[in-house]
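The freezer alarm interrupted the setup, so I double-checked each line after restarting. Inputs confirmed:
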Amino acid sequence: MGVGIQVEKLNAWFGKTQALYDISINVMANHATAVIGPSGCGKSTFVRCLNRMHEVIPEARAAGRVRIGEIDVYNGTSAVQVRRRIGMVFQKPNPFPTMSIYDNVAAGLKLNGFRNRKQLDEIVHRSLTYAALFDEVKDTMHKKSGASLSGGQQQRLCIARALAVEPEVLLMDEPCSALDPISTGKIEELIFQLKEKFTIVIVTHNMQQASRVAEFTGFFLLGKLIEFDKTEKIFTTPSDKRTEDYITGRFG
Amino acid sequence: MAESAKSSASIPPVSLARRLTDVLVTASAAGAVLLVLLPLIAIFAYLVYKGIGSINWAFLTQIPKPVGESGGGMANAIGGSVYILLIASGLGVPIGIGAGIYLSEYGRNRFGNLIRFTADVLNGVPSIIVGIVAYGLVVLTQGHFSALAGGVALAIMMIPTISRTSEEMLLLVPQAIREAAYGLGVARWRTTLSITLKTASSGVITGVMLAFARVAGETAPLLFTAFGNQYWNWKLNQPTAALSLQIFNYAISPFDEWHRQAWAGALILIILIVLSISAVRMAASRGMLKGAS
Amino acid sequence: MNSEVVAGTRANAEPLLKSGDGAIADRTFFVAVLACGTCVLALVVLIVYELITKSQLSWHAFGLGFFFRSDWDPVNDQYGALPFVYGTLVSSILALIIAVPLAVGVAVFITEMSPRWLRGALAFTTELLAAIPSVIYGLWAIFVLVPLLRQYVQPALSTYFGWTGLFSGPPYGIGMLAAGIILAIMVIPIVSSITREVMTAVPQQQREAVLALGATRWEMIRTGVLRNARIGIVGGIILGLGRALGETMAVTMVIGNRPDISHSLFAPGYTMASVIANEFSEATGDLYLSSLVEVGLALFIVTIIVNVLAQVLVWSVTRGMPARSRG
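Predicted 3D structure, all chains:
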C-alpha cells in the first residue's frame, strides 16, 4: 500500500530567490493528488522537494518538514535513501540511451547492487506489466534500446523503471506534456490503476487532466499554496477568488 | 518601387572591374587550394614511392644491422613505439578522463576555469620543452634514459587534450539523463561512471584516439628521454627505440642504406596514423547515432 | 494485474535495496577526479619549476645579456643565444608570410566558394596535413624539397631577386629558406582551420545584407565575412605563429644547424628548438646544459604568451567553443 505525505512549512530557494513559501499540505495515501497553477508558480519545485531532487540544482536549497510514511525526508535520511523510496517520472521521457529496454527497467536495481538474475527478471516483468508496456516489448526488450521506442512508450518505460524499485510514492512532473493525446490517454488510464498501490502526486498544467485523474488538487500561485481540497470542490466551488480566476481562465 | 521615377536603366550594372576582381579572387583562392594540396600529394606519393619497396618481412621483424651492412629492419623501433605509447596511455588516459570528469561534473566554477585555461595553454607548449621536463623528472632520477621517461613525456602531452575532449563529450549528455538516475536513488559517483560516462563513451574514446594519433608521431620529446636503442628493450628503465626516433636518426645519417629504411619506416608510421584517424572518424559518425544525442 | 505481487507491500516494510547511500564513495570519487584535474595545474607548475631551476647556472653567469650575445662556443664554455632567437624569428615570420595568404585563400574557398560536395573532402585533406608528423615533413624536406631548392628555386631567386640582398651566398638548399617553406606547409592547416571556424561563425544575415546591396561574391566575402571575422583570423595567425616557434624536428633537419646570423635566406641557421634537439643529449658540462635549458625557458615563455594572446582573440569571436582538431 502507498503511504501518506505530510508537509509542514516547506520553503525552497534558488540561490537568493525564494520559490516556495511555507507550504503545508497533507497528501492522502493511495490517492492521486494533482498540483496545478500557472507557469512559474512553484509546482515543479514543490514536487522536486519531496524527493530531494531540488537540491541537485547548484545553489538550490530547501527547509521544512516532509514526512513520507515513517521517513523524515530532510532529517536523518540521506537524499539517496529517500529517492529509493520515491519514484519520479519527468516531463520529457528520459530512458537511458545506451541500455536496452530490460536494462532500463532494471537500472534502479542493478545500479544499486542488486544482482539476483531470476528476481530481476520477475521484477522487470512485473513493472512492465504495471506500466502496460509488457505486451508491446516482451519480444524485444533485451535487444532494442530504450531510446528506440515512441514517445508514449518511452514515458511508460520510465514509469516502469520508477516502479521497479518498489517505491511507495510516485511523483509525476507533467508526465504527458510532451506526448500526443492517445499516449496521454493511456498514461492517465495507468494512473487510475496505479492509485490502488501507490500514492501519486502529479503536476499538471492541464486542468482537465487534473479533474480526470486526481481525487485531490492543490492550487499554487507565486510559490504559495492557495487552496487544497477535493478536486470536485476546487473545480466547481473554489473557496479562494484566485483559484476561481485561474480555473475559469482569467489568467494562466 | 513605384516611386522610382528613375527607371531601371539608371541602376548601374556591375562594372567590368568588379566582376573581373571577383573572378580573379576566385581563381586565386582555387589556386591556393591547389598549391596547398600539392605538397600533401607529393609527400604521400614519395612515401609510397620510396618506401614501399623496402617494406618486407625482414624489415618488419629484424632489428638494425651494424653500420655499413645492408638489410635489417625496424622491428625493435616499431615494438618500442608501441611499448612507449602503452606506458603513455596508461598514465595519460585515466588522468585525462578523470580531469575531464572533474571539469564537466564538478568544475563549473573558477577553479574549473583555471584548469580549462591551463589545459589549453599546455596544448601549445612545444614538445621539445616537454622532453626537457621529463628528462629532469625521470631521467635524472633514474640515472638513465628510459622507456618510462618517454612514456611520461608523451603522457604529459596527452593529458590536456584528453581532458578537454572528455569534458566536451560529457557535457553533451543531457542533464535529464543524470536526473533520471538520481531519481532512482543512484549515488552521484555511480551515476557519473555508469550512466554519464557510459553515454558519452564513444565520444570520449574518439578524443582519446585523436590524442593517441597525435603523440604517436612525436619525436622531439623522445630525443632525450627514450633516447633510442639499436636493440630490443622491454625494461621500463632502459633506453628504448621508437619508430619516429629511428626515422630521424636514419634520415640525418650519411648512409644511403639508412635513408632507404627511413622512408620505409616513415611509410609505416603514416599508415598507422592514417588508420587510427580513419577509425576515429568512422567510430565518431557511427557513435553519434547512439550514445549522447 | 497480478494481485499476489503487490508493489509497496512488504511484510517488514524494509527497503528492497539494502546497500548504503554511497556517501563515502561519493567523497572518494570527488577527491580522485579533483586530483586528476589538479594534475593539469601541477604539470604547468612542474614545467616552470624544472625550467627555472635547471637554468639557474647560466642565468647567473650571463644574465639577460645571454639573449643578445651571438657566440655559442661549447668548447670555451661561452654561450650566447642571439643566433637562435634570430633564427626562430626569421624562420617563423618567413613561414607566416608564405602560409597566411595560402591558408586564408584555402579557408575562403572552402567556406564560401566551393561546391557543397567538395567541401568535406577539402576540409578533410587540410586536416590530414595537420596529422603528418614533423619528422616525416623533415624527411620529405631533406630528400625532395632541398634538392629542388638547390637546383631550381635558389638559382632562380638569386638571378632575379639577388639585388634585395636576401638571396646571396651559395645555394646549399638547406638553410633558412628551406626551414621557412617547410614550416609554412606545417602551419597552413592551423591557420586555415581557425579561419574557417571564425568565418563559419559569422551569421548568415551579414552575408545576405551585403549581397542585397548588390555586391559581387568577393565583395560580400570581403565586407560581410572577413571584416567581421578579422579578429579571429588574426588569432588564428598568431596561433600559427605559436606553432611555428616551437616546431622542432622538420626545422632541425633542414636549417643547417649553424649558429650564424646572416641577412641571406640561403644561409644555414639555427633555431631555439633545434639547438636543444641537437645538443641536449650530448651536452657535457653543467653550464652547457643550463644554457640549453635557459633557451628552452625563453622559448616556453614566448610560446605561452603568443598562445594565450591567440586564444583570447579566437575565443572572442567563437565565444569559447572548445577547440576540436586544433594543432
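Quick read of the result. Chain C has eleven helices and two strands.
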